[in-house]
Amino acid sequence: MTHTTTARRKRTPPPVVSPTRERRVARGKAARAEVPRESHAGFVPAPDRIDAVTLLEGQALTRVPELLPIRYGRMAASSFAFFRGAALPMAGDLAHTPRSGLIVQACGDAHLANFGVFASPERHLVFDINDFDETLPGPWEWDVKRLATSLEIAARSNGYPAKDRRGIVVAAVAAYRGAMRSFAAMDALAVWYAHADMSQVEAATSVSLHARERKVMAQNIAKAQTKDNLGALGRFAVVHDGVARLNAEPPLVVPLRELLSDPAEAEALEDILRALIAAYRETLEPERRVLLDRYRLVDIARKVVGVGSVGTRSWMILFLEDGENPLFLQAKEAGPSVLEAFVGASEYDNGGQRVVVGQRLMQAVSDIFLGWIRSPGIDGQPRDLYVRQLRDWKGSAEIESMVPRGMRAYGELCGWTLARAHARSGDRVAIAAYLGSSSAFDVAVREFAEAYADQNERDHRSLVEAIASGRVLAETGV
Questions:
Q1: Mean pLDDT lowest for which of 21-25, 258-262, 343-347, 402-406?
Q2: Is there a single domain that holds both residue 210 and residue 284?
């Protein structure tokens, strides 16, 4: 008698057959024929465009109410400051522009202030994108256009002549195109290993800079290397009788013990946060859990960060080893990406995981403490957060003090870096074929950047007028 079973056998999936290089090139050229590179030029607002201030007010509904005036005050300070916080309005506008159909892991907020230096695990300074709050698979063109527009706006804010502004934007887009074509000629592993450490950055930019500008760069590098955990301890905490406590600097830094007036509620919330740290620990690699276990959590504070992020929940968490060696982590709220309304929801249920996976895909090297959690907030609502080191040799360029030559070199570096990030996740061969060897795309995006910078100025004025009319409350100088 034979024995039969209804259990299903596991089917071996068929082997993945990658398209040939020739097919990938053909795909890029076909996309170019359907969506010509020249079609990316210019910008015309959609007839049903939602007012930018209305969009910002919609974002405010899920944020900490008492922090919103800080956000509006920071965004109102200048056209460039407004642009930094207006990723959502621009995403809505980009959704109405031509796209090639080639998808990458997009940053979602690739303006020039979201690039900078930080320490690799090997303790080398590297240059890369450093903000991934909005990351999501999306059109590569959107990141390029946001970077190009940020250069145009920053150059206007610095008072550069139109000729210099155009040269800066075209050079950055050309650097992206040239880098993508170079990456298309590499194998995938070589692209994955590619990175820009500071020796390469200095070599690439020093020829464009005068002695004074090279001196400023060296000073900025030295300053970044002071932004470590020990420096943060001196900046944000006080140690007395072997006990460390985070300093209160309201409204920007408020220790947990001061957020809740009832000591019992504060203690209960701290217990919850400690349990959440244990949950976060499980998202780390096993060897990094061992490292984290060397430290003891000693204090937590809410910290205001950035421009567009103001009002989202952000926690500064102080750990100590042996009562004196500090580790600062930041747990930052991760809601839906601004791109999700236009390209579809993330595959990850946890917004923190969306950020961490996107960051690991795009960055050449990432923080060893990257992880994510879901937390019940003070208001009882569940929040997704991602966790990283608060300071680890982090530094950014002083955009306001740049001369045109320096901004051009910096823009080229950002263009190369963005191309490398896109080449890691997207079809670099198809994108390179789409871009081609001519400057057609560079010039088109320069024209888009000029037109969108005009739109950004109109949106900035709308916010300033909304503040003047009392529609929104703003607090300046904070």
A1: 258-262
A2: no
